[in-house]
Amino acid sequence: MNILLIDSSARVETSDSRKLGERLATRFGEISGATMCRRDVNQGLHLLTEAHLEAYYTPADQRTPAHNELNQVSDVLIDELRACDRLIMTIPMYNFNIPTSLKMWQDIVMREGETFDTTPTGIVGKLMGKKAYIIITTGGTGKNSQDNLLEPLTRLCLSTMGVEDQTYICADNLAFDMENSLKAAQRQIDELEI
């Protein structure tokens, strides 16, 4: 089983989302033969430019060496997604939204013809058969608040790419009740059937 762990917190040592993700990764590590690929989306990604979009949409047989160079990061990230059986994403809420680094990752991996196709009947994801575990942390926003945009945005992104089996773990309102919220999320992780 191949596991891809994607961390998006700008914090490293003090990140609650990373700690919860590591807890789940440790559970997967106990499975015989499991391999772990780790991706910190704060490192090595780029904003999309017009040149990137041109390279993404140029058919493979018409790409220049410059196009291939521009596609290099995207190709690596998409290969990581294709190779994984299980996806773990850790997402802290920043200003009611996902971190900028995770948005960059989404923009880089959501490529027509690579992770989804557009058909006359709608979008069809190409990454079927994967299971995703999404760990969300919030400071002052409740899990069920209308201000919590992380789950619907992430659900849409993953579903568009064909990842329909999604489990959400949320440690919310950490600014008000950190201990109980973290304990509840840890318990949910410990009780998951993986």
TrEMBL record:
Keywords: Flavoprotein, FMN, NAD, Oxidoreductase. One of its GO terms (molecular function) is oxidoreductase activity, acting on NAD(P)H, quinone or similar compound as acceptor. Signal peptide: none annotated. Its cofactor is FMN. GO terms for biological process: Mo-molybdopterin cofactor biosynthetic process. Residues 1-191 form the Flavodoxin-like fold domain. Binds 1 FMN per subunit. FMN binds at S9, S15, D16, S17, M93, Y94, N95, F96, T137, T138, G139, G140. Its EC number is 1.6.5.-, 1.7.1.17. It comes from the Bacteria. PROSITE patterns: MOCF_BIOSYNTHESIS_1 (PS01078). It catalyses: N,N-dimethyl-1,4-phenylenediamine + anthranilate + 2 NAD(+) = 2-(4-dimethylaminophenyl)diazenylbenzoate + 2 NADH + 2 H(+); 2 a quinone + NADH + H(+) = 2 a 1,4-benzosemiquinone + NAD(+). Homodimer. Belongs to the azoreductase type 1 family. Also exhibits azoreductase activity. Catalyzes the reductive cleavage of the azo bond in aromatic azo compounds to the corresponding amines. This is FMN dependent NADH:quinone oxidoreductase. It comes from OCS116 cluster bacterium.
